[in-house]
Amino acid sequence: MPIKIPDQLPAIDILKNENIFIMHESRASTQEIRPLKVLILNLMPKKIETETHFLRLLSNSPLQIDIELLRIDNRPSRNTPEEHLNMFYRQFELVQDRNFDGLIITGAPLGLVEFEDVVYWKHLETIIRWAKTHVTSTMYVCWAAQAGLNLLYGLKKQTLKEKLSGVYTHSIANSFHPLLRGFDDSFLAPHSRYANFPVDFIQDNTDLDILVTSDEAGVYLAASPDKRHVFVTGHPEYDATTLHNEYIRDLGEGLEPPIPVRYYPNDNPDNPPSASWRSHGHLLFSNWLNYCVYQQTPYDLEHFSEDKFTKDD
Fold first, then answer.
1. 237, 246, 280, 292: which one is catalytic?
2. What is the per-residue pLDDT across 254-299, written as a single tens digit (0 to 9) for each?
3. Which positions are catalytic residues (predicted)?
4. Is residue 33 part of a domain?
């Protein structure tokens, strides 16, 4: 089944060229199918690029997905045209009275900023608290994972001295968890963050099921026992060239970034990189949609039971 996204969204042409089945809003309105309602809170500066990354992964499912895009506030963007934001993004106030099957909160380039100094921190806290009673399952990606751990579990910010950047080997810690159906025992995934997610720190201070770890990168994937909160500390959505673009950007800003680990052939930035994580990225999102969202959510979102999701909070 296709993903349903707004007409004229730039990602449409890119995904069509990749033979991904896209359904416009106008066509979807004629079908008598209950699609999954998935909200994406896009915190990344280059929103059009990030939209395409996540829509590509959400498309790899037999389920029909109805996507809505959410912006954190109405501040002007330096990296995304205002007309794009006005046309395709909603303010939280317009969706706060509705229920959703899934919510994805993207990463943000805020690794060295203290939470209390993030200009939209209070607004993000409101959205994460709201999701506990209005969303069946929420996925927190990279910086959002650290923010979610702070707001939901009270975990303090853990910051590395040097940016963790590159492609790392990961091992499965719980091979029977539904999120890991079909995963190899070890696999590759990219990271690009200053946040630190030590295994012992997560294990000792939360009730999360730790599902995937890396000797170098720490916890990669963890989920609450009821699968309503899923934390992904890396970037399975990245294109082959995303780490390269970030590396060049950081060089241009005089940050002296380390060369991304095991990313460029022969560790030479002049050599074009290739994606070695794509299959597991698609599988992770398919499993999330199936086991954490579709099999948990009510058929009629108007009958969303707050008691079901608040009794253990």
1. 237
2. 888 999 999 999 999 999 999 999 999 999 999 999 999 999 888 7
3. 142, 235, 237
4. yes
